[in-house]
Amino acid sequence: MHYQLYKHDDMCKIWTIIFSLLPVSQAVAQHTITGVVRSAYDNQPLEGATAQIVGQNTGAVTNKVGIFTLKNIPSKYNILIIKHLGYKDKYDTIHNLTADIELTFSLVESSTVTDEVFVRAIRASDKSATTFVNVGKQTIQDHNFGQDLPIILNWTPSVVTTSDAGSGIGYTGLRVRGVDATRVNVTINGIPYNDSESQMTYWVDIPDVASSTQSIQIQRGVGTSTNGAGAFGASLNLQTNSLIANPYSNVILSGGSFSTRRFSLLAGTGLIKEHWTFDAKVSKILSDGYVDRASSNLTSYYFSGGYYKKNTLLKVICFGGIEKTYQSWGGIDSATLATDRTTNFLGAIYNHDGSINRYYNNQVDRYNQNHIQMHASQRLNKYWNANLSLHYSSGKGYYEEYHQNQKFEDIGLPPVKMDNSMLTSSDLIVRKWLDNKFYGLVWSLNYQHNKTDLVIGGSYNQYRPAKHFGNIIWGQYLGDNIPLGFTYYSGRSKKYDLNIYTKWNYELTNGVNFFLDAQYRFVTYKTAGKDDDQKQYNVNDLFHFINPKAGISFSFLRNNILYGSFSIAHREPNRSDYLQNPTKPKAETLQNIELGWKYRNNKKAFEINYYYMRYVNQLVLSGEMDNVGTPIRVNVGKSYRTGIELSMQIPIFKRLNWNSNATLSMNRNKDFIVFENGSPVAKNTSIILSPQIIGGSQLNYNAFKNFQISLLSKYVGEQYLDNSEKKKLSLPAYFINDIIMSYTFHPHWVKKIGLSAQINNLLDTKYVSNGYVYDGTPYYFPQAGINYLLMLMVNF
């Protein structure tokens, strides 16, 4: 309660004190309002909406599932207002409260253009009959202790994550439904982020991107048409910070095990003269890693400037980072795993007897990546909205490696005359460089009227020139004819990607929506030169892909949705597929069926989804890796992934709720060729690194005001490391638990102070999340045992 005491009337003070001490008779007149806020467009919960009783200080903000709670509301006449950026305010009149009530609010988008328009064209809704999950800003912040983004998303359905350093910082990976990162289409504000050649996503190049992320949507399966390479398992699209109307500055400090330290500074002007806004972030993350010498030195930045008007939005976004990590992608064999899990053999310099003399202290990966995005959105009239984005990215960096007793002929060098002998090998230090540029445009037209929702969009992107080359920066014996900086291999690449798509959603009848999506992609790829093993290569390939999708959703009994969709997608091989295979690799084809049911109300949510993903010419991981840690893939004739995904959110007690998910799947190569006794044999085998069971759980307990504790659990079933299904070439199942505790308070001199603690792998489970096979021997990437991170966040 809040009482105002008038200094001029002492009697008023006395009566106020008396009434405040009256027992339950006064409290009985106070009630609780619980509400859920959703978007009228797609019925998705809106996180960050504010609920306020007009004329009172009583207010609340919706959580990640759109729920707010207002307590101690008097039974008298009240006016409740719901606000969310980009939506029209919603008013509700409440009076004569006699008990606690629950309300539902659907907010209609306002005419003011907001940042969400840049991702709306490629995001899914319940109307698009697609399997997806949204992760909001508050959830991202709660889990962001400085670890890479895949680790933050570890608890979402069908996701498995791994970390080369074992601590979640540095090189990390994410697989969805068992498919590797090259098949997870990633966009940032609608701009493709996957590397054009490798098709990988290197989160280490944009460290702490989570601090400047507004929301994330993960679409499983083919999903809706998007920009960039085709999705063969998932699409993950990030939206960076949207408009923050009020000035702010935040300082985030965190640290913990493995000498991990993080410093982030965020600041924004809020709206200036009702139209202009500027935001900035700088971040530094340092960690020694769990694995020996697996250190990370990560620096990142983010800057944006925007102009907002009723029908116009212009925004420039610049972000990037510099990473320097000690190489830890080598893995360890089973004997070493049993005796010393943290061993890292990369950088080792050996004695003649095979023992390790020392380690080269600069066996590092260093890369600098910068991005510039320019976005424009214009509401043309009541029904049409146009969006245009220009982008430019540059990256340059190298692997530095110590090569002991390197044979000259293997790197294209002649023998070196030394005194009276000819030397054929030497210790060398080399740098393997990548220098590339990526630029293009992305556009979309959106039409909404009556029962029709139409999107026409596309992109044109160029990846050129991409330079691959290696230099010798030191040699024990080089002679006079091989100068320092000598280039011993080089090549250039170009790639062009044209993409046009149309998405049409039509409401056939009340609650029944039909979705049609068609995409055309034209891709050309050229690369030529000499590789680091001195092999010449010359690739010139082009592709025409047509990717149709169709679906239907049916809303019934207010809170239930049934949906089904069928999609076809194609995907081109990546650079290593061309260079590592003796025959020309083929493009992949995927046919995807999704069938599901969703139920949501103010307190509970349930979802069941069945999927079937049938591949033709799928490029399957062979289990082996090349000399820079890139997985090697080969085409198989036919293969499939099928399974059931379940998720739910339920309240157990008033302060305790449970979010959980589970995936039960089969992942098979129907005719994978293996060699037995020297002869090829076709077998039906499990696809590697594709567990049959994946489970996630979050138990959230609001112990008391402003204090929350969460137990996060993850189960991942057995995974094979190659396609022979041999037990000795597999990763055992594992079950890990993390705990997060957070407390916030509001002293008068700052807006908010947050204190958080995260204990990872609470039960100190010895587990391995990734591995590969080389020459028949399995190699493993062990993850850290019990460890902790602490975080202080101050909002000014």
Instruction: Decide which structural class fits the backbone.
Output: mainly beta
Q: What proportion of the residues form beta strands (DSSP E)?
A: over 45%
> C-alpha Rg, in Å?
28 Å
Number of strands: 47
The average pLDDT value, as a whole number, equals 89
Number of helices: 7
Distance between the termini: 26 Å
Instruction: Give the overall shape.
Output: globular
Question: Which percent bin holds the helix content?
Answer: under 10%
Biggest sheet details: 22 strands, antiparallel, barrel
**Residue ranges: pLDDT <50 for 5 or more in a row?**
1-8, 11-28
Report on the structure:
It is a single chain. This protein has 796 residues and is mostly beta strands. The chain has a 22-stranded antiparallel β-barrel. The chain is 5% helix and 59% strand. The model is unreliable at 1-8 and 11-28 (pLDDT under 50).
Briefly say what this structure is:
The chain has seven helices and 47 strands. It is mainly β.
Features:
22-stranded antiparallel β-barrel, 796 residues, 5% helix
What's the SSE blueprint?
Elements: H1 10-21, H2 24-27, E1 30-39, E2 50-53, E3 59-61, E4 67-74, E5 78-83, E6 90-94, E7 101-107, H3 117-120, E8 131-136, H4 137-143, H5 149-152, E9 159-163, E10 172-176, E11 184-188, E12 191-192, E13 213-221, E14 233-240, E15 248-256, E16 260-268, E17 276-287, E18 296-308, E19 312-326, H6 334-339, E20 348-350, E21 356-359, E22 364-379, E23 384-407, E24 416-418, E25 421-423, E26 425-449, E27 452-475, E28 486-509, E29 512-530, E30 536-556, E31 560-571, H7 575-580, E32 588-600, E33 605-616, E34 619-625, E35 631-635, E36 638-651, E37 656-676, E38 679-686, E39 693-704, E40 707-716, E41 719-720, E42 730-731, E43 734-745, E44 752-760, E45 768-774, E46 777-782, E47 787-795
Parallel strand pairs: 1-7, 11-14
Antiparallel strand pairs: 1-4, 2-3, 2-5, 5-6, 8-13, 9-10, 11-12, 13-14, 15-16, 15-47, 16-17, 17-18, 18-19, 19-22, 20-21, 22-23, 23-26, 24-25, 26-27, 27-28, 28-29, 29-30, 30-31, 31-32, 32-33, 33-36, 34-35, 36-37, 37-38, 37-39, 39-40, 40-43, 41-42, 43-44, 44-47, 45-46
